[in-house]
Amino acid sequence: MTVTQPDSLPATTTHHENTVAIVGGTGALGLGLATRWAHSGVHVRIGSRRAEAAQGCADKLPGAVGGDNTTMIEGAAAVVVAVPFSAHAETMRAIAKIIQPGQLVIDTTAPLLPAGPRGLRPIAPWAGSAAQQAQALLPDGTGLVSALQTVSAATLQNTELPLDEDVLLCGDHTADKVLAADLIDRIPGLRTIDCGLLDISGISERITALLIGINKRYKTHTGIRLTGLPQPLPR
Ligand SMILES: NC(=O)c1ccc[n+]([C@@H]2O[C@H](COP(=O)([O-])OP(=O)(O)OC[C@H]3O[C@@H](n4cnc5c(N)ncnc54)[C@H](OP(=O)(O)O)[C@@H]3O)[C@@H](O)[C@H]2O)c1
User: Fold this and answer.
1) Contact 44, 17 (CB under 8 A)
2) Fold of the domain built from segment(s) 16-218
3) By alpha-carbon position, which residue is closest to atom 15 of ligand 1?
4) Contact indicator for 54, 67 with CB cutoff of 8 Å
5) Where in the numbering of this chain does the Pyrroline-5-carboxylate reductase catalytic N-terminal domain appear (predicted)?
6) What is the pLDDT of residue 168?
7) Which end of the chain has a smaller Cβ tally under 10 Å, C or N?
């Protein structure tokens, strides 16, 4: 991943390295990420409001564990938030009470209204984007990046399908983005692109609605790929 943004805060430090907790890990995206990470040697902790449901999902994945969201977050190096936008603020407030300095939050949320006659529609959160809403709700200094909004959960869950796409990554601190990129790049076929500061995230978040429409029209699970970048991307 190319890193271009200056840092204004000290780098975060890791907790249990190589350990990722997924809040909403029983859902479509959370389980898809859990599946790919578990098969890539990452220690996956599947979080849920229902510990038994999380354990049931974890039992099917190599080396994964499951439990309630709070227990899973404790000590994890990274906390991936994969809940619907309708639960985003409530979830971030809950995480704010337990997140510790040095833990990284990766927000995957695309702000969408539930499906109506016109399908899922993008909405504008009061803070500007889901990521900025997260930033406003988490304690000052929490490591936070936004990523993965354009990656299809269906493709992630089916390990027979190869991935071949880019992941747009936004965040205010280089060290956080490097940590997130290290984790995401562990999934074969995903390439993280540093897209700049967190306030750019609204653009990535809105692409989800666009992709959902394309997927419906062409009956597929598309992702995005940026062209013209150096290969491999400089670190
Ligand atoms: N689906 C995709 O292809 C995709 C792709 C990119 C990004 N995203 C983003 O990823 C996020 C999750 O999407 P998804 O499709 O995985 O959603 P989902 O399957 O509908 O829900 C994910 C999980 O969120 C938890 N949850 C639901 N309501 C909650 C609440 N009120 N409070 C706390 N937790 C709640 C549930 O876990 P428990 O009931 O087990 O607690 C559920 O399994 C969304 O923000 C979406 O925009 C999705």
Assistant:
1) no
2) Rossmann fold (3.40.50)
3) 28
4) yes
5) 19-111
6) 98
7) C
Question: What is the whole-number distance in angstroms between the Cα of residue 7 and the centre of ligand 1?
Answer: 31
Ligand 1 centre from 13 Cα, in Å?
Answer: 28
Q: What is the 29 CA–ligand 1 centroid distance (Å)?
A: 7
Which tokens sit at 180? 């997130």
Domain spans of the chain?
Answer: 16-218
Predicted confidence at residue 3, as pLDDT, reads 39
Burial class (CB in 10 A: 0-12, 13-18, 19+), 81: buried
What does 146-188 look like in DSSP terms, one character per residue?
E--TTS-HHHHH-TTSPP-EEEEEEES-HHHHHHHHHHHTTST
Burial of residue 114 (CB within 10 Å: 0-12, 13-18, 19+) is exposed
For residue 101, cis peptide bond before it (omega within 30 degrees of 0)? no
Question: Per DSSP, which regions of 41-89 are E strands?
Answer: 43-48, 65-68, 76-81
* Residue of 23, 83, 92 to mutate, ligand 1, most atoms within 8 A of C-beta: 83
Give the residue from 102, 95, 94, 31 showing the smallest Cα distance to 60: 31
Q: What is the reported pLDDT for 131?
A: 98
